[in-house]
Specification:
Blueprint (H helix, E strand, L loop, with lengths): L15 H12 L15 H6 L19 H9 L4 H19 L2
Length: 101
């Protein structure tokens, strides 16, 4: 088996046979879809769901004025004080977004 690679936007055109196959699938009612091998996504699933572990948000360099005692407290906890600042701000952001009506 060989690996076929395409660049985005450079896919080969669909053949008439493939178009007919896709149309036949699109025309089938949802009731004909076999979900027997897929577990239901109930509330317990979403309660335990975690963000993609490979997701890395884009970091932006900025300058922030912080009270000297706050910075001293963050630095006193060891290396990674900027990461801790980000975690504290992210927690506040998520709490704020969650509390919005």
């Amino acid at each position: 088996m060989s690996v076929v690679r395409y660049k985005q936007g450079e896919l080969p055109p669909l053949t008439e046979e493939r178009k007919a196959e896709l149309k036949a699938l699109a025309d089938r009612p949802d009731s004909e879809i076999d979900y027997s091998d897929i577990p239901p996504l109930d509330d317990s699933f979403w309660k335990n769901a975690v963000r993609n572990p490979f997701y890395r948000p884009t970091k932006t360099s900025t300058t922030v004025r912080v009270d000297a005692d706050v910075l001293a407290w963050l630095k006193s906890q060891g290396k990674g004080y900027q990461t801790r600042i980000n975690a504290i701000l992210r927690e506040a952001m998520l709490r704020s977004l969650h509390d919005k009506p």
